[in-house]
Design brief:
The protein has 2 domains: 200 residues, Rossmann fold, CATH 3.40.50; 77 residues, Orthogonal Bundle (DNA polymerase, domain 1), CATH 1.10.150.20. It is elongated, with a radius of gyration of 21 Å. The protein is built from 12 helices and 6 strands. 38% of the residues lie in helices and 12% in strands. Helix 8 packs across helix 11. By secondary structure, it is of the alpha/beta class. A 6-stranded mixed β-sheet has the order 3-2-1-4-5-6, with helices on both faces.
Length: 301
């Protein structure tokens, strides 16, 4: 608190894509069984990753989002949207344990059911945008690029150690952050089951969208385009014929800002690892080597 009783402005808020972190750990870490035979290798990897993150001095306020259920409202919008088909059962079974583990680290968790983890991160970024100096979304997912605002809301790829502010998003995709849903609608996104429009590749989509910003602004007649792209007439005809599909794909790719997330920034203030619950978790899961890893215990536990 400041001398006049007002809260000091927070420098940074870190938002963690815990679904990605768990997937990353599952494929990077060896299989490991808890004393009762439960597969927990991915949870161990997640805990190790978060413990390393929490050691960084600028991590003072933090929230994490998970996909608590496989499907979301987008599956009702489009039958081809991604589902849990092909998801390894041993990975899926670790999601609730991962959520418990994050809470045992003292991290606020948003387990999404109707929405997706990406929606939670976008909602938190939108809600706290004017309350902190910088919001860092820890995710390599290209969907998250639409949340970037200048150099105040950025994404960070922890694998490649790459920070994406607005200039970096433009350099990577060729469009401004606000055009990312349009870009994904045209080019498609195989990870999410968005097919895109035939012929609309990354280069042509970026060229046209950098000029017009949104699908709705692109003229039907290529003769009216202010940019030159290969096979413009064919691309224009495809878009004119499939505008309803393109609009649907854009809605699928647009992250929501109304997911149920924490509304008070103070609740995201990380105060340390709750010792009692964390040690109990490590004992139950057989993580003996992680028991002494926390560098700061919560003062009241």
């Amino acid at each position: 608190m400041t001398m006049n009783g007002e809260s000091e402005r927070v420098a940074r808020l870190h938002l963690v894509d815990a679904t990605f972190e768990l997937f990353r750990a599952y494929f990077a870490m060896p299989s490991e069984k808890s004393p009762d035979g439960t597969e927990v290798g991915a949870v161990r990897g997640l805990l190790s990753s978060m413990l390393a993150l929490l050691r960084e001095p600028d991590v003072t306020h933090i929230g994490a989002a998970t996909d608590h259920t496989i499907e979301s409202f987008r599956n009702d919008m489009f039958a081809g949207y991604k589902t849990g088909e092909g998801l390894e059962p041993e990975l899926w079974a670790q999601f609730p344990i991962a959520e418990e583990a994050l809470r045992c680290l003292g991290i606020v968790v948003w387990p999404m059911e109707e929405f997706e983890a990406d929606d939670a991160l976008a909602s938190a970024a939108h809600h706290f945008a004017d309350q902190v100096d910088e919001i860092i979304i820890l995710s390599p997912d290209k969907d998250m690029a639409q949340c970037v605002r200048g150099d105040r809301i950025v994404t960070f790829d922890r694998i490649r150690k790459k920070r994406y502010d607005e200039e970096a998003v433009i350099a990577k995709f060729g469009v401004r952050p606000g055009s990312i849903p349009d870009y994904l609608a045209l080019t498609g996104d195989t990870a999410d089951g968005i097919p895109g429009l035939a012929g609309w590749g990354a280069k042509s989509s970026a060229t046209v969208l950098y000029e017009y910003e949104s699908i709705e602004n692109i003229p039907n007649d290529a003769a009216e385009w202010n940019v030159k792209v290969r096979s413009a007439n064919r691309l224009a005809a495809t878009l004119q014929d499939q505008r309803e599909d393109a609009a649907l794909y854009k809605r699928l790719a647009t992250l929501r800002s109304d997911a149920n997330v924490t509304k008070r920034l103070e609740e995201l203030h990380w105060r340390g690892v709750p010792k009692k619950s964390y040690l109990a978790l490590c004992d139950r899961l057989g993580f003996a080597s992680l028991r002494d890893r926390p560098h700061h215990w919560a003062p009241t536990t």
